[in-house]
Amino acid sequence: MASPSMTALLVPKLTYFNTGGRALGLRIALFKAFGKDGWIDHRFDYKEWPALKPTTPLGSVPILTLPDGTVHTQTDALTRWAGKKAGLYPTSDDQALIVDEVVSTSFEALNKCPHAKDDDEKKKVREEYAQGFLTAAAKLLEQRVGIGPWVVDDGDDLTIADLSVYMLTDMIVQGQFDYVPASFILEGFPGLAAHRERVKEHALVKDYLANYAN
Amino acid sequence: MTAATYELTYFDAPGRAEHIRPMLHAAGIDFKDNRFHFKDWAKIQPGTPLGVVPTMKIGNTTYCQSNALARYAAKLAGFYPEDPLEALIVDEVMDTCSEIMSTAPQDPDPETKKNRRQEWQAGGLTKFSNHIEKRIQEAGGKSVIKTPSVADLAVWAVVDGIKRGFYDHVDAAFFDTNYPGIVATCGAIMEEPKIKAYYDSLA
After folding, report:
1. Given pLDDT bands bounded at 50, 70 and 90, which one contains residue A2?
2. Secondary element (H or E) of residue B26
3. Is A57 on the interface with B (CB under 8 A)?
4. In chain B, whose CA is at the least distance from the CA of A137?
5. Which of A43, A94, B68, B74 fits as disulfide partner to A101, beta carbons 3.0 to 4.6 Å?
6. Can you give the pLDDT at residue A148?
7. Which residues contact A137 (CB under 8 A, 6 or more apart)?
8. Is the pLDDT of residue B190 over 60?
9. pLDDT per residue as tens digits for the range A143-190
10. Band of the pLDDT at A6, cuts 50, 70, 90?
């Protein structure tokens, strides 16, 4: 008898922690592309990670398993694939360059966020990071958002660029970056603060959050 | 974007710009290849948006993110696939190559750096290289996808960095024995006529 793991997938399956984090834009794009029943949102609790980790190609998540059996990695790459499937990625090369730059910068801001075991050390390195790379990234992102509403000028709708910026700004405003206060965005970057509100109010994002925890 | 000018800024080295330069050339773009010496980095860094290079100025706007720039140039040059799944594999390998460059450990203490680099060679570098090799073998053994792409250049740049000894304490011959696909891909992309034409133009 075939075990469940040997059953062929009929739809794409995303595997990630049971939290929003770096997968938010990717999940929203998958939801738009495939609908609630057209993909599997496989979420796991942190305690399952040690057992799951060695089964992943690079010891990291998210990973995307396709019906053809292949397993794909790299959040930035997955987000672009899902964005194309969802109509959230521009066909113009010039616009795509800006979207790619913004998506990659948002993820780089997450990746460069320093960690430390000691709270005092963590506070110190986080504050350095906030004044350093995070400020540079936020300035660039705010410039790319411009007067808006979305990153892509003359675009009718948001793209994965807006979802990626929102991923970052919302995490900061929700207090998920220890020692980086919400005011970093709300007071420091009013353009990004306004953009965050617009993304939050977008029908797609509201629909997604009505169907998924985060 | 009818930009008259393209200016790429990076160190005078392959590194994170070598998958961009040949693509611009192959796209027929007459770009200014603004290469600087490492000793000038402290002067140049404050002028960059994110404190890193490469950057590319197109017209009046300066863009960042090496893989975004490479993808853009590759599309214009015909080295980036239309098919979303092939594009996913190209993107995944480019990001993995970037991750190799980003995760090479640094340390001010020479002994610690040596130990960390050797651990990394057996750990992260091996893990990432195994994954790239797997993708190449799935595509037939001499390119990341079935046709030549910008991902092959990204792989070449990583291999070049290690071979030329840019990463202290990492074996320059790391790829020679266990990664036939990676080795074949590096050879094949340099023989690709439009890529070869770029390097011939430099001579």
Report:
1. very low
2. helix B21-26
3. yes
4. B50
5. B68
6. 87
7. A105, A106, A108, A109, A168, B50
8. yes
9. 999 998 999 976 679 999 999 999 999 999 999 999 999 999 999 999
10. low
Residue B194, classified by CB atoms within 10 Å of its CB into exposed (0-12), middle (13-18) or buried (19+), is middle
Residue pLDDT, tens place only, A115-132: 999 999 999 999 999 999
Question: How far apart (Å, rounded) are the C-alpha atoms in residues A187 and A185?
Answer: 6
End-to-end CA distance of chain A: give it in Å, rounded.
Answer: 36
| Cβ-based contacts of B120 with chain A (< 8 Å) | none
Residues 6 or more apart in contact with residue A13 via CB below 8 angstroms:
A39, A40, A42, A64, A65
Q: Which two three-digit tokens encode residue A87?
A: 């109509």
Return the number of other C-beta atoms located less than 10 Å from residue B199's C-beta: 12
Kindly report, residue by residue over A40-89, the tens digit of the pLDDT. Answer: 999 999 999 999 999 999 999 999 999 999 999 999 999 999 999 999 99
**Alpha-carbon gap, residue A78 to A60, rounded angstroms:** 13
First to last CA, chain B: 31
d(C-alpha A143, C-alpha A140), whole Å = 5
* Separation of alpha carbons A73 and B89, rounded Å: 9
| Alpha carbon separation from B58 to A12, A45, A96, B6, B41 (Å, rounded) | 38, 45, 14, 5, 21
CB B69 within 8 A of CB B22: no
| % of chain B surpassing 90 pLDDT | 96
Residues 116..135 of B with a Cβ closer than 8 Å to A: which? 127-128, 131, 134
CB B168 within 8 Å of CB B117: yes
Q: Do residue B96 and residue A74 have CB atoms under 8 angstroms apart?
A: yes
| Dihedral sign for Cα atoms in the order B148, B69, B132, B189 | positive
Q: Which residue has the higher pLDDT, A5 or A205?
A: A205
* CB-based contact B44:B9 (threshold 8 Å): yes
d(CA A137, CA A108): 9
Contacts of A63 in chain B (CB under 8 A): none
Q: Is B93 helix (H, G, I), strand (E, B) or coil?
A: helix
pLDDT at A1: 46
CA distance A100 to A108: 12
Size of interface A-B (CB pairs under 8 A): 80
pTM for the full predicted model? 0.96
